[in-house]
Specification:
By secondary structure, the protein is of the alpha/beta class. 44% of the residues lie in helices and 10% in strands. It has one domain: Phenylalanine Hydroxylase (Orthogonal Bundle). It starts with a helix and ends with a strand. Bound molecules: fe (ii) ion. Fe (ii) ion binds at residues 140, 144, 148-149, 190, 205-206.
């Protein structure tokens, strides 16, 4: 791989953020788009067993907490037993919404990430966490990327929205506005909540691939749950090493698509003149949506919460 100045910055920045001082993945075989070949035969039986345990634990937590679209789409992936073959999953996804998955070594530079999304390709990390990282992992692995992100790509509206986000990311790079757009991704694609007729539900991948936050985000009285507003989100800082202090709640994916189908340039110009809001901000007049206690979470016939 050619190492440009931008790529060198990318690796240095991420290395500083990571626990071990370097990224986990093997980037030596990646092409210019950071795509690698997924060697499915190299996964060990222990790794498949770990995947199965992760999948089973998380799937049990979904009823009453994840939005129905996510639960229904997850079943279509048929990935409960083994680490998924990304090409095989891509074929099913391609038929549904024209998206495909591409294997990557781990985190990739923003430009490549947005280029993939803008062309209906979702990057999925090829490696799986270690057993001792069952509950928490610093860098996203294949379980987070696949289990958390891929199911919603079967939904046509969400799939279109994510492509538009990718195009928006390429524009944000030109406008030097990436930190603002990153907040939008964080508070929607990673940690978004949705108000449904059945009550609050999660759709963000960071929540749905987490054994703890999936309960916390809906039931805890601690965090704020605020109606989604693009400008509010662009101004709001976030924390990467703790449960969220604020969640933003959409009505449906159509709202998400429509609300970001705008020219962000004037919005960036305005937000750049405003102070960023701390992650736990509550503005005057803002309604804090109550924790979701209405619907019991029924699992195996017993009430869990
Ligand atoms: Fe993610």
């Amino acid at each position: 791989m050619n190492t440009t100045v931008d790529q060198a910055d990318f690796f240095r920045t991420l290395a500083e953020k990571s626990d071990a001082g370097s990224l986990r993945g093997d980037y030596s075989q990646a092409d210019e788009h950071y795509v690698v070949w997924q060697d499915c035969a190299a996964y060990t039986s222990q790794q498949h067993a770990l995947w199965r345990r992760l999948y089973q634990r998380q799937a049990r937590l979904l009823p009453g907490r994840a939005c129905d679209i996510f639960i229904d789409s997850l079943a279509r992936l048929d990935a409960a037993d083994t680490i998924p073959d990304l090409e095989r999953a891509s074929d099913a996804l391609d038929k549904a919404t024209g998206w495909r998955l591409v294997a990557v070594p781990g985190l990739i530079p923003d430009l490549s990430f947005f280029q993939h999304l803008a062309n209906r390709r979702f990057p999925v990390t090829v490696w799986l966490r270690e057993p001792e990282e069952f509950d928490y992992i610093v860098e996203p692995d294949i379980f987070h990327d696949f289990f958390g992100h891929v199911p919603l790509l079967f939904n046509p509206v969400f799939a279109d929205h994510l492509q538009e986000y990718g195009k928006g990311g390429l524009k944000a790079l030109e406008l030097d506005a990436l930190p603002y757009l990153a907040r939008l991704y964080w508070y929607t694609v990673e940690f978004g909540l949705m108000q449904t007729e059945q009550g609050l539900r999660a759709y963000g991948a960071g929540i749905l691939s987490s054994g703890g936050e999936i309960e916390y985000c809906l039931r805890s009285p601690t965090p704020r749950r605020i109606a989604f507003n693009v400008e509010r989100v662009l101004r709001t800082l976030y924390k990467i090493d703790s449960y969220q202090e604020s969640y933003f709640v959409i009505r449906d994916f159509r709202q998400l698509f429509d609300d970001i189908a705008i020219d962000f340039a004037p919005l960036y110009a305005r937000v750049k003149t405003l102070e960023p809001l701390p992650a736990d901000a509550q503005l005057p007049g803002e309604i804090n949506i109550a924790p979701h206690n209405a619907a019991p979470c029924i699992e195996r016939g017993s009430r869990l919460c």
